[in-house]
Each structure stands twice: as C-alpha cells, then as structure tokens.
Design brief:
Oligomer: single chain
CATH superfamily of the largest domain: ntegrin, alpha v. Chain A, domain 3
Order of helices and strands: HEEEEEEEEEEEEEEEEEEEEE
CATH architecture of the largest domain: Sandwich
Low-confidence stretches: 1-28
CATH topology of the largest domain: Immunoglobulin-like
Structural class: mainly beta
Distance between the termini: 65 Å
Strand content: over 45%
CATH class of the largest domain: Mainly Beta
Bound molecules: calcium ion
Number of strands: 21
Helix content: under 10%
Number of helices: 1
C-alpha cells in the first residue's frame, strides 16, 4: 500500500465519519415548533362560591428552534391541537404535603398542576375552579405547555401568572371592581433585548348603575406600554415619568353587571444580569373610580391583582423555582 492509497482510505474514512456524525447529530438539532401559552378567567374578581372557568390557550408562534426547516410549518396563531396542557396554581407548602394557593410573586412558592388535558380544535383546555371557602384570597394561576412530539414536535411554553381575586361578600357591593382576566406572552422569558411582548387584560365590572367610571394604572418600570386597546371608552397617558407611565382609561357610565375590558401590551428588555427565577411584574396596580350618586361623589375601588413572569436565565423552563 503506498502513501497515496493510505491517504485515500483515510479521506474516505474521514468523510464517512463526518457523514455518520451528521446523521447522529440530527436528533440533537431540535427544531421544534415554538408555542405560546395564555391564561384567562371567565370572571375576575369573583365572589366566594363562584365557579370560575380557567382556560389555557396554546398557539403556534410561526417560528421554530435552530436547525433545518421542515414542513408543514404552522403559521402564527394557528392552534396547537391535541397536545396536553396543564393549568397550574401557585402554591406554598404550609406543612408536609399540604399546599395552599397564593398570590403571584409570593416567595418560596411553586406552580403545581391542578388539572391537565388535551387542547381542542381552538388550542384550548378549560377547567372549572370552585372558589367555595376561599373568600378574601388572591390566587395566581398560569398555563403550561410541556414539549411534545420529538424533534418535529411542539416546544414548551408557559403563560404569565395572573392573580384571581376571590371576594368574601355574598352579594356585590355597589361600585366597580378591577382585575386582570387574561395574560399572554412568554411566562418564563430569557434575559435579553427581545424578551416580550406580553399582553394582559384589565377588566372593570360594575355592580349597580355607575356614572363617570374611570380606571388608572401604572406600568411596571421596566417594560413600557406599546399598546392599550379598550372595548369601551378611551385611554390616554395621564402622567409620564422617566420609569413609569400612568394610563387613564375613561369608561363612562356603566349599567349593573356591565363588564369593560382593556388589553394592555408591554414590551422591554430584561437585563442579562437578571438572576434565574427572578419574578418581574408586568402591570402596576390598577384601580377604578366611579360614582353611585350620579356624579355627586366619587369613590375608588380596591387595587387589581398582578401579572408576573419568571425569568429563565439558564433555559430550563423554571420547573423548580423557589
Ligand atoms: Ca431556569
């Protein structure tokens, strides 16, 4: 065997090795369809004893992870159909194996499944949550979609956490209440310049006829408001400081039981120095003002609950954040 032939063998082996390596590395190159999860409530706040329908929605983002493209590639906002989605409650363990639901941002808490099931043709799965005995509590929930279907499957996503406010009284007190009833966007964002956007819905509910209803709320100090779309009335910036913007939502008169919604979209960078599992609030507290005596006097509601995300610096999806 002369040197030339040895070299030829080596080359052939070399290319063969490269080819085998390429084949073997195929499954490692994940290029799953990326998804986004949202959570919504049928009502918020609610009176103790009310059954609340909590709905998780999982949609495609129209993008996929690194690696070669494949078809069919689902389009933006196509529903993820037939995948398992979990509805999770934020809980603390008060004694061994005894867990209670707590508000978004509570220290030493974990999201645990309260129900799960397959998404329907609209990418949705719902569960009914009984609020009996929970008067006076605020409990945070989120939607979580575990990854599915191997390398061409659907990737993990979590919604932001949203507080469900459960009032103790058995009948509504005349006036307005304000709460977040929906949130979408990445609930476990990586740090960086493009961590958002996120959208949350502020809902004002009237008990009894009200006049001159307005609601106002601050931004979070780190992700600015990029859009504010009300289904009733109009929104304007009331006060702008360097880090915070107060929005004033003028709703007008409301009839008893009427509901008005404002969808707020925020976006902003998360510093690379943000620690894993850091809780960031998407909204500042919102409150409503209203008159029950045709404008002679005005009253202010309690503040809304909050919407949170958990920073995922190491990319593990934050399954075990303290
Ligand atoms: Ca993490």
């Amino acid at each position: 065997m002369n040197a030339f032939i040895v070299m030829k063998h080596a080359l052939r082996l070399g290319w063969g090795f490269v080819f085998l390596f390429f084949l073997a590395s195929g499954p490692v190159l994940a290029h799953k369809n990326e998804t986004k999860s949202a959570i919504s409530y049928s009502a918020n706040p609610v009176t103790e004893g009310t059954d609340v329908t909590i709905t998780a929605t999982v949609l495609y983002t129209g993008t996929f992870g690194s690696g070669p493209t494949h078809s069919p590639l689902p389009a933006l906002n196509d529903p993820v159909v037939g995948d398992t989605v979990q509805i999770q409650q934020l809980q603390v363990e008060i004694e061994e194996n005894v867990f209670v639901g707590v508000a978004c941002g509570t220290p030493d808490s974990d999201f645990n499944d309260i129900d799960s099931g397959p998404t329907n043709g609209s990418g949705q799965f719902s569960t009914v949550f009984d609020t009996s005995g929970l008067g006076g509590k605020t409990i945070c929930f989120r939607a979580h979609h575990p990854d599915s279907g191997g390398q061409h499957g659907n990737d993990t996503s979590s919604s932001p956490g949203v507080d469900l406010v459960i009032n103790a009284q058995t009948e509504c007190t005349p006036g307005a209440t304000v709460a977040a009833t929906l949130a979408s966007g990445d609930g476990t964002p990586a740090p960086g310049p493009n961590s958002g956007p996120w959208t949350y819905r502020i809902t004002v509910t009237a008990c009894g006829g009200l006049t001159g209803v307005t609601a106002q709320g601050g931004s979070n100090g780190w992700a600015g408001v990029t859009d504010a779309s009300p289904d009733t009335g109009s929104v304007a910036v009331r006060k702008q400081t360097k880090k915070n913007t107060i929005h004033l939502w003028t709703i007008g008169d409301m009839t008893g039981g009427q509901v008005a919604n404002l969808d707020v979209t925020v976006d902003g960078p998360i510093p690379n120095s943000a620690p894993d599992c850091q809780i960031r609030f998407l909204n500042g507290p919102w409150s409503a003002t209203y008159s029950t005596d045709d404008g002679a006097t005005f009253q202010k509601s309690e503040y809304s609950g909050r919407v949170t995300v958990s920073v995922d610096t190491d990319g593990d999806g934050n399954p075990n954040c303290p």
